[in-house]
Design brief:
The protein is mainly alpha-helical and 54 residues long. It is 74% helix and 0% strand. The longest helix has 24 residues, at 2-25.
């Protein structure tokens, strides 16, 4: 049971990661700059959204 729950949690986290990457990628460079984000940061920010900070 724990293995199945772990797999489900990982699947949900991957979905959060993909959704965050998508939402940030559709923003213009100006919108990202207004948020203090550059495109190189998107992967790290999505990872933090899904799995938390390191």
């Amino acid at each position: 049971m724990a293995a199945i729950q772990h797999m489900q949690e990982n699947r949900a986290r991957r979905a959060i990661y993909r959704q965050t990457v998508h939402e940030l990628n559709v923003l213009t460079n100006r919108d990202l700059a207004d948020l203090g984000i550059n495109r190189a940061m998107i992967g790290r920010l999505a990872h933090e959204a899904a799995w938390g900070t390191k």
